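cache lookup: miss for this entity combination. No prior model stored, computing from scratch. Input as submitted by user K.M.:
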Amino acid sequence: MTELRVPTRMGDGSRVERTRSELRADIEAGTAEGARRAKCPPLDADELDHLLDIYASPASFTAVDIGEQVVLSCDGGGSKMTGTDLQDLLESEQRLGQDILELWHIEYSYKAIKTILPFQQQVMQNAQLMLTAPIQYGAQPNLAFYSKPDGPAENWFELLPQGRIAESRAAIEEAMEHATRDFVYVSDGMMEAGADGMDFDTTGGAGDADLLSTLRAVEQIRRTWPEAGIELGMAGEFVIGVHGELEWKGRRLAGMWPKEQVEVAQEAGATIFGPAVNIRASQSCAWNAAFALTVVKPCMEVARIPVHPNVGQGVCGVPVNGYPGEDASSRAAKACVEILRCDGL
Amino acid sequence: MDVTHALAAGMGGIRTAGDLVARMQMSRGMRLKEAKEYVAGRLGCTVRDLSDSYAMEQLRGELGLGRILDHSNLHPGAPTAMAAKFRIAELLGLRINCVERFREMAGL
């Protein structure tokens, strides 16, 4: 008898058809690859069965069980098409029912935000007068912006291919000093304007130094603002060793996977950690979900703070295209909540 | 995608008690189970009630914690926004940053 084929998606968002057996094979391959790469156990049999049930359904939409809903934070959020930041935030609160709102600017880098801080502070103050839900301020560390020609430090991405390792590391260390100072400056400004917390989005995007400059800032912000929310969201599943020798309290950052990432994040003073696992566009979403859950699961076991896996475009099983299918996005959300038992998304 | 996640897995923000649970995660770093139990205890309801928009609309109205406003569901005279956050801070035993700033600026 011919097996029924169900519509599903690839990591690039395109629609394909798979049989249940093919989906099972994808899921088994995804968890095996995740376990091999992160040196952690694969998903167990019950988890694989559950994931298969989620992905082998032909339903156009899926959701977690009643009462099992989780807190939604967001990096960015809203549409920027509603006229003003205030309207955008109001819409997110009143129409989308977001749990944590985020004020952000299209430049979305702490370095850029520093130059327009008073404008963003005023929006935050106004927004806090008009909204009930918590509002954090978000931007990205983007350490590379501190290298020439955009910033003051030598450009280590030009020096490294020339084999000038010591100069590269010196440039990275100089950039980190500027970066941490900016992160703290913007955070102090936004907290003074009434923010409920700060979001460091896409941390580690420029490698281990990007992460270390953020951890140093988080530690300082926590000291100054003991009750601030501090969300630290990652750029990818694996910290790239651009510098290679940087450590956080004796622990080498390069090569860290989500389990070690959450440990340093919570030690620095973050209150929400967002692991990110980048999509493999040529694999199915079922494969990608299995891979993502496998590498994030060890982090759930050591986390003392809430873990909100990133489920935006191109991470943790959500396709990488601009408008990911609702079928695929909702399956990724359900899989994270029901298999990881995560605290939010 | 925001809508997808809100419907698939989100607590519902101020339509339910999502904002209150979120505040415990943000300010105290509470994991989900602990945060939900804490908020349910403070509200005097069950954990399942926290993401039930019917139950929470009643409770938020009674306690003055702010609700969704639309043309068929208006509550003039009831606390919203900053006024509601004063009540939320007291209910949850939290120091909400903007409430403290408002208090200072208004000389309260």
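stored under new cache key. The domain at 68-274 of chain A is CATH 3.20.20.210 (TIM Barrel).
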